[in-house]
């Protein structure tokens, strides 16, 4: 267990001692005594939040205040910067699922929760309550990670895989950190553009163009958090110029690159998700 301190944020953070048995799964544990106005920054992975214990958190967003608990959020959740989390005495295991495996693990298409948070009970029924009870009954974070991983592995094994062509297109996008010409993806897999776009969205939860922008954005903002200049990030990350980066950051977060560089949601990643060779929880690496 480590302590993350960033401005007013003071969180306990735990990481698994070994990688998940399922490629494309990463997780971290959080203990937060007071969570005050945490901006949700869009991320390319599907997020599975498993809360347990006496505390609770809520989301404030355009649709109104929503209790969290055990929930799922699709890729890019929080776009526009208008979603904030608050809570007290929050304990949770946060899982990031590569879009390549999310459908198999969740038992539903990611399009079912595009841009929204879905209560896990609605997807898993009694199994959601069972994992919450199991997490509450153990005191070790490593035991909690093991329980979570066993559940995810069982569901992944029973779930349906995505098309190999869709998987290949996602790997191209993630592996290039969003620096790929989407016009050529269909030709490279031997499909029509319409077929690839339809299958990609239905199986991964977002269209290819949105995936490219989200992966590129995710890479760029983490470099901003690391202290790199906006001009250098824009040049290296594939933006036309610094104004292009500025527009993308504003579209995804509602704030400027200077402001987003100080977001706790992003700053904790180096501690909670220490290995980030490839973006978006892709199967090729841990996020």
What's the short story on this structure?
By secondary structure, the chain is of the alpha+beta class. It is built from 13 helices and nine strands.
Uncertain regions: pLDDT < 50 for 5+ in a row?
277-287
Number of strands: 9
| First-residue to last-residue Cα separation | 19 Å
* Strand/helix succession: EEEEEEEEHEHHHHHHHHHHHH
Our estimate of the beta-strand percent is: 15-25%
How would you describe the shape?
A: globular
Assign a percent range to the helix content: 40-55%
> In terms of structural class, how would the helical and strand content be classed?
alpha+beta
- Largest beta-sheet details: 9 strands, antiparallel
The average pLDDT score comes to: 89
Radius of gyration of CA atoms, rounded to a whole number? 18 Å
Number of helices: 13
How would you characterize the overall build of this protein?
It is a single chain. This protein is an alpha+beta fold and 287 residues long. The chain contains 13 helices and 9 strands. A hairpin with a 2-residue loop joins strand 1 (2-6) and strand 2 (9-14). It is globular.
List keywords for this structure.
287 residues; alpha+beta; 13 helices; disordered C terminus
């Amino acid at each position: 267990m480590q302590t993350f301190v960033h401005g007013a944020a003071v969180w306990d953070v735990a990481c698994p001692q070994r990688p998940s048995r399922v490629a494309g799964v990463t997780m971290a544990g959080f203990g937060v005594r007071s969570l005050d106005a945490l901006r949700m920054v869009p991320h390319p992975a599907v997020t599975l939040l498993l809360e347990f214990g006496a505390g609770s958190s809520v989301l404030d967003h355009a649709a109104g205040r929503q209790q969290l608990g055990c929930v799922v959020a699709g890729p890019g959740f929080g776009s526009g910067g208008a979603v904030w989390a608050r809570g007290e005495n929050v304990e949770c295991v946060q899982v990031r699922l590569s879009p390549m495996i999310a459908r198999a693990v969740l038992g539903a298409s990611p399009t079912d929760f595009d841009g929204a948070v879905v209560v896990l009970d609605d997807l898993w029924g009694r199994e959601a309550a069972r994992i919450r009870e199991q997490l509450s009954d153990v005191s070790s974070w490593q035991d909690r990670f093991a329980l979570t991983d066993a559940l995810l592995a069982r569901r992944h094994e029973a779930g349906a895989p995505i098309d190999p062509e869709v998987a290949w297109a996602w790997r191209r996008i993630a592996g290039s950190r969003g620096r790929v010409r989407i016009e050529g993806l269909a030709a490279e897999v031997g499909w029509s553009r319409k077929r690839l776009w339809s299958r990609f969205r239905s199986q991964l939860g977002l269209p290819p163009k949105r995936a490219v922008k989200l992966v590129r954005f995710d890479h760029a903002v983490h470099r901003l958090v690391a202290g790199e200049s906006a001009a250098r990030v824009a040049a290296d990350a594939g933006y036309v110029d610094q104004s292009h980066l500025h527009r993308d950051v504003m579209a995804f977060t509602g704030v400027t690159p200077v402001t987003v560089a100080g977001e706790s949601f992003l700053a904790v990643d180096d501690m909670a998700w220490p290995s980030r060779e490839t973006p978006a929880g892709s199967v090729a690496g841990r996020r």
